[in-house]
């Protein structure tokens, strides 16, 4: 810069600042050990001092403790839809093996209820096989064969579908094994308590029991044969970590529930007629 050039004063070199008028006692600068931070554009000419942090000591008083807001949160029951979508996303319901398994599960109780009621009305099987007991044994053999076919279709449908990786572990396997063992106990004890004819619809053939069975497992739950069979399929599905098996197990439970709704009142009516016949004698 040349010697003849006039120098502008510092006040004139600074750009013009617009600030709100301050009272006389606040317009004076206060000495401080550290330079004040620059004011934000468009803000006040002198920034406010920062608040002391929680737990720090201040020269003017004790530490400032910031109160925590008191909020009450209520838990909301939510269904993990994403988990359900992932679970059933493993199942291909259009697979031929899966469809065959569903049909075999639904067909079995439908078949034995239709045939048993037809026999109760017409006695056609008893006349064909020569006696009600022989006809009951033949129907029981057919039901056992159908159950074997159902179990085979169930297993093949599980094998053709993917496994759930999170369940493919020892804990799930042994849990399924324990559930299957409980189901097998219910099925076996029910068969021993009812006998062959009591298990396979002998009352529809006129082979009635002397009294209602109330021993184990009938002392714990009704229709233990059905629910024991459902537990076996549930345990089998867990042992294979199969989402398809779980879905088929639900189909088994639904089919048995519908069967109980039809069988229960009809069987009670059969024994009610028996009681009336005994009293009339």
From TrEMBL:
Keyword NAD found: no
Binding site for S-adenosyl-L-methionine: 181-183, 263-264
Composition skew (Low complexity), residue ranges: 27-43
EC number(s) stated in the UniProt entry for this protein: 2.1.1.17, 2.1.1.71
Membrane topology: Multi-pass membrane protein
This protein's pathway: Lipid metabolism; Phospholipid metabolism; phosphatidylcholine biosynthesis
UniProt entry tagged with the keyword Aminoacyl-tRNA synthetase: no
Substrates-to-products reaction catalysed: 1,2-di-(9Z,12Z-octadecadienoyl)-sn-glycero-3-phospho-N,N-dimethylethanolamine + S-adenosyl-L-methionine = 1,2-di-(9Z,12Z-octadecadienoyl)-sn-glycero-3-phosphocholine + S-adenosyl-L-homocysteine + H(+); a 1,2-diacyl-sn-glycero-3-phosphoethanolamine + S-adenosyl-L-methionine = a 1,2-diacyl-sn-glycero-3-phospho-N-methylethanolamine + S-adenosyl-L-homocysteine + H(+); 1,2-di-(9Z,12Z-octadecadienoyl)-sn-glycero-3-phosphoethanolamine + S-adenosyl-L-methionine = 1,2-di-(9Z,12Z-octadecadienoyl)-sn-glycero-3-phospho-N-methylethanolamine + S-adenosyl-L-homocysteine + H(+); 1,2-di-(9Z-octadecenoyl)-sn-glycero-3-phospho-N-methylethanolamine + S-adenosyl-L-methionine = 1,2-di-(9Z-octadecenoyl)-sn-glycero-3-phospho-N,N-dimethylethanolamine + S-adenosyl-L-homocysteine + H(+)
Pfam families tied to this protein: PEMT
Any one of the GO CC terms: endoplasmic reticulum membrane
Domain of life: Eukaryota
GO biological process, one term: methylation
Lumenal side: 1-95, 117-128, 198-240
Xref: Gene3D superfamilies: 1.20.120.1630
HAMAP family per record: PLMT
Role played: Catalyzes the three sequential steps of the methylation pathway for the biosynthesis of phosphatidylcholine, a critical and essential component for membrane structure.
Protein family (similarity comment): Belongs to the class VI-like SAM-binding methyltransferase superfamily. PEMT/PEM2 methyltransferase family.
Protein name: Phosphatidylethanolamine N-methyltransferase
Natural source organism: Geospiza parvula
Upper lineage: Eukaryota, Metazoa, Chordata, Craniata, Vertebrata
């Amino acid at each position: 810069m040349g010697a003849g050039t006039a120098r502008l004063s510092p006040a004139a070199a600074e750009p013009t600042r617009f600030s709100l008028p301050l009272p006389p006692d606040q317009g004076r600068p206060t000495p401080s050990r550290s330079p004040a931070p620059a004011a934000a554009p468009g803000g006040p000419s002198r920034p406010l001092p920062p608040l002391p942090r929680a737990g720090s000591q201040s020269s003017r008083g004790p530490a400032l403790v910031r109160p925590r807001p008191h909020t009450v949160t209520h838990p909301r029951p939510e269904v993990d839809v994403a988990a359900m979508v992932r679970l059933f996303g493993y199942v291909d319901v259009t697979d031929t093996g899966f469809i065959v398994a569903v049909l075999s599960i639904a067909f079995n109780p439908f078949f034995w209820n239709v045939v048993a009621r037809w026999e109760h009305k017409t006695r056609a099987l008893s006349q064909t096989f020569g006696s009600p007991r022989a006809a009951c044994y033949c129907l029981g053999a057919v039901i056992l064969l159908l159950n074997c076919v159902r179990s085979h279709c169930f297993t093949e449908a599980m094998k053709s579908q993917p496994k759930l990786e999170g369940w493919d572990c020892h804990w799930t396997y042994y849990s399924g094994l324990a559930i299957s063992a409980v189901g097998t106990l219910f099925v076996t004890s029910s068969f021993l308590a009812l006998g062959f004819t009591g298990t396979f619809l002998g009352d529809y053939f006129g082979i009635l029991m002397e009294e209602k069975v109330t021993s184990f497992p009938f002392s714990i739950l009704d229709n233990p044969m059905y629910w024991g069979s459902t537990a076996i399929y549930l345990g089998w599905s867990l042992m294979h970590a199969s989402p398809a098996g779980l879905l088929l197990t639900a189909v088994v439970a639904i089919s048995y529930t519908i069967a109980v709704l039809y069988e229960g009142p009809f069987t009670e009516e059969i024994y009610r007629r028996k009681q009336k016949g005994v009293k009339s004698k």
